[in-house]
Specification:
mainly alpha; 3-stranded antiparallel beta sheet; 11 helices; 8 strands; 36% helix
Length: 371
């Protein structure tokens, strides 16, 4: 009997295996990640001065990659929002020799530098899943190809400046400056952009001292609006020619397009209709909201220090019916100027120059801060 009892004690029923605790599961996941990191690491030493992607050489990684935590960041390359949960690449470009603000790009929009040849050099690459890690490897290879394409030397024919192929215009009446050939070409191109294309504008990127101001002033003189001081629907003057009538009709359509575009912009910006300006202060609110943007002249936005310079340049290079020789010997007074100029600046600008007066000037000068 004693032997039976001992055998019974020895043959105790096996205990049920306990469920794995959550800590054990997390430990296994961490071990799995570590194994993936070891597989992804490159068996080479970083070059001198090259970040190793893990803070080596006392340098931060040049690029960082992560899954976007919000949808507020905008891609620096394609200018679209980066969706939450998608892969984004962070980078701090240098500003005056120091790291500037952090910018973000989609993975497909990022261009990695020449020294970045493997994902291990990018901070956060170990946290990517296998699919995104392969996409990162592919994008690094594509970046190397793009950089090499940019480094290719240009053919001599590609460096030859292309001349403007449109109409070369004569200097307009009221200009008292002798334009150089490239300046004539420049203002002719600016006139072409304002009148004959759907773009309605452009960028004049001449270097300093090449006469950008005088070209701009010449364009203002050559393309002064004919209906700036007219209300919509104004009758034509008597004895008008058919050619002049067609020109006024074209400008009328332009003003209507501008007004429609202005209303659309106010709507998109959620500007309250009650605070929008009107052409008639005495009109009812219902009628008042029909107006809004008014016809006006040219707006010049510049730094504060350049306000007086712009005004002096306009007065210097424009004259009324005077000849060039007489204009040089005796500069015209403000009453003879073909372009009326207003400086809209200062604490009392809105009271000294109300909206009704402001829109009568041919040129309004203001600053970035006021705008």
């Amino acid at each position: 009997k004693k032997s039976d009892i001992n055998d019974a004690k020895k043959k105790k029923p096996a205990k049920k295996p306990k469920k794995k605790k959550k800590e054990d599961e997390n430990r296994e996941l961490d071990e799995k990640k570590d194994n993936n990191k070891k597989k992804r690491r490159v068996n080479r030493d970083p070059q001198p001065g090259e970040p190793d992607g893990h803070g080596g050489l006392n340098q931060p990684a040049e690029f960082q990659i992560e899954y976007s935590t919000t949808s507020r960041a905008t891609c620096k390359r394609c200018d679209t929002f980066i969706k939450k949960g998608s892969v984004r690449v962070a980078h701090r470009p240098l500003f005056r020799g120091k790291p500037g603000f952090k910018v973000y790009r989609h993975l497909q929009c990022a261009v990695f530098s020449e020294v970045t040849t493997h994902p291990s050099q990018i901070e956060g690459s170990d946290d990517l899943n296998d699919n995104d890690y392969e996409l990162l490897e592919q994008r690094i290879e594509e970046s190397q190809i793009e950089i090499q394409e940019e480094k290719k030397s240009l053919e001599p024919d590609e460096l030859v400046p292309v001349t403007f192929q449109g109409e070369i215009r004569s200097p307009p009446k009221g200009l008292c400056a002798s334009l150089l050939p490239f300046q004539v070409e420049g203002f002719s191109w600016m006139y072409h952009q304002e009148v004959h294309t759907s773009v309605r504008g452009g960028i004049l990127a001449d270097e300093m001292g090449m006469g950008k101001t005088v070209q701009t002033i010449t364009t203002m003189l050559d393309n002064k609006p004919a209906l700036q001081h007219c209300l919509p629907g104004t009758k034509y003057p008597p004895n008008i020619t058919q050619q002049h009538k067609e020109k006024l009709n074209e400008e009328e359509l332009l003003w209507e397009e501008c007004l429609e575009s202005w209303h659309h912009e106010m709507k998109m910006r959620n500007v309250l209709a009650s605070i929008l300006p009107s052409l008639d202060k005495q009109s009812s609110k219902k009628k008042q909201n029909m107006y809004g943007g008014a016809r006006a002249g040219t707006l010049v936005v510049c730094p504060v220090v350049a306000l007086s310079q712009w005004k002096a340049e306009i007065e210097k290079f424009t004259t009324s019916d005077l000849s060039f020789e007489s204009a040089v010997s005796s500069p015209p007074s403000s009453s003879t100027q073909p372009l009326t100029v207003c400086i809209y600046h200062g604490p009392n600008r809105s009271s000294e120059t109300p909206r009704e007066v402001l829109q009568k000037y041919d040129v309004v000068l203001t600053t970035y801060q006021v705008l």
